[in-house]
Amino acid sequence: TQQAKHRKVHLFDIDVAGGQRFFESDTLSPGQQYTLVDTPFGKLGVAICFDVRFAELFRILALEGARLIVVPAAFNMTTGPAHWELLFRARALDNQCFVAGCAPARDETAGYVSYAHSLVCDPWGRVQAQAEAAPQLLICDIDLTETDAVRAQIPVLRARRTDLYQLKYEKDS
Predict the structure, then answer these.
(1) What is the pLDDT of residue 2?
(2) 50: which of 24, 58, 65, 77 is 20 to 30 A away, CA to CA?
(3) Cα–Cα dist 122/126, whole Å
(4) Whether the Cβ atoms of residue 66 and residue 38 lie closer than 8 Å to each other
(5) Is residue 21 helix, strand or coil?
(6) pLDDT, position 163
């Protein structure tokens, strides 16, 4: 049974000097909402690929109660080695929740070569499991109550200064 429908919020429009040029907005339109799914284990957030670069989206999902955020993604061979693990660890640490990056295995013969390396990061920002580039089934047991424990120990979400941040967002709009 379908629990939710998610559309990618941030489209991948890039022109990396000496690297790739890619404009998803030529063929896609962005989603207009974030996605949170109630499961028997707790709330699950969803983001897609380039969305992982936007801390605000992940913060909203965490504030809405996400204990796990799942991100299907296919970073390329330019951004993957430099940013893949770093971004997923940062989003997990920033929001004190589990973040899982699900990527296709690398196929060097394909027109688009994925970096691969699916991974699961815990609320401390540690990598709990990570696949290699070759096809692999990644299985990782997680305890979603860890999210609650970490948030209680270091109450980042409660300590935020939204009185200051809101002013900045309003000025930038």
Answers:
(1) 84
(2) 65
(3) 5
(4) no
(5) strand
(6) 85
> What average pLDDT does range 129-140 have in this prediction?
96
Q: What is the pTM of this model?
A: 0.91
* Token pair 């390329």: residue: 76
> Which of 131, 157, 171, 129 lies closest to 58 in space, CA to CA?
157
Can you read off the two tokens belonging to residue 63?
A: 């504030």
Rg from Cα positions in the chain? 17
Tokens of 90: 């940062």
Residue 41 half-sphere exposure, CB side, CA atoms within 13 Å? 13
Domains of the chain in sequence order: 13-172 (3.60.110.10)
- Closest by CA position to 70, among listed 90, 94, 43: 43
Alpha-carbon distance of 172 to 151, in angstroms, equals: 30
Query: How many whole angstroms separate alpha carbon 126 and alpha carbon 91?
Result: 11
Q: Is 37 helix (H, G, I), strand (E, B) or coil?
A: strand
